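in:
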């Protein structure tokens, strides 16, 4: 066991874990942040996407020892039910979520895109979300939710 320090959702956190423990497991099991989901466990589906030091990563592929001292944002760090992040409000309003497995990863990928490009084209949205698989939808409502997230506060 190693004591690791990292900033998660704006809070400095200490974790006692073997350094090769997946970041996904540390977030869910050690820190109780169950919003990040495991879909495939192989880095193929994007359900476990989080932002580490400004980069979108699949947390199922990252050993926690590699993120010691890092700044990590999970879906829980975006907003609260009372004060949702614009992407959360837009997913809710425009039906961007179905079963909920891919939704946290989709939101994190969308936030990563929208931080760089607040008014993305459809092609930019498709490219930004290409690493995230959804088994429930045809993606159009997800793309609409991302496109409308900052447009008049999520309004069409």
């Amino acid at each position: 066991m190693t004591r690791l320090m990292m900033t998660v959702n704006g809070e400095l956190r200490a974790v006692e874990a073997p350094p090769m423990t997946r970041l996904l497991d540390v977030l869910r099991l050690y820190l109780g942040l169950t919003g990040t989901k495991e879909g495939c466990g192989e880095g193929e589906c994007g359900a476990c996407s989080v932002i580490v030091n400004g980069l979108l990563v699949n947390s199922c592929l990252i050993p926690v020892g590699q993120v010691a001292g890092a700044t990590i944002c999970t879906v829980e760090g975006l907003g609260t039910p009372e004060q949702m992040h614009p992407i959360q409000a837009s997913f809710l309003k425009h039906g961007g979520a179905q079963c909920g497995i891919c939704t946290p990863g989709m939101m994190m990928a969308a936030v990563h895109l929208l931080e760089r490009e607040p008014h993305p084209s459809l092609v930019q949205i498709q490219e930004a979300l290409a690493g995230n698989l959804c088994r429930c939808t045809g993606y159009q409502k997800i793309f609409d939710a991302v496109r409308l997230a900052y447009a008049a506060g999520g309004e069409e």
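note: The two ends are 51 Å apart (CA to CA).
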